[in-house]
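Chapter review: from sequence to fold.
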Amino acid sequence: MPQAGQQPTSSHQFSLKSPQKRKKPRTSFSRLQVVELEKRFHRQKYLGSAERSNLAKILKMTDHQVKTWFQNRRTKWRLLLIAFQ
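The token string follows.
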């Protein structure tokens, strides 16, 4: 408990965790990649792991990048559906 005149300390000041990792820079996709991702998204909103791996290989992306792109695109799609209702 802080004494009179002292500010309470925040718990993160004395954390024993390793220093915070730097934020990854934003990924930029080429126009070709975006066009192909959008085409696939319009045909299929969800990809299985094998489909995702295959698409990532074709587009020279990582599985994680494709997975994240589809997650973000589905979110955008849902928001657009709500906005137009």
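Two observations follow directly from the output. The chain has a mean pLDDT of 88. Residues 31-83 form a domain with the Arc Repressor Mutant, subunit A fold (CATH 1.10.10.60).
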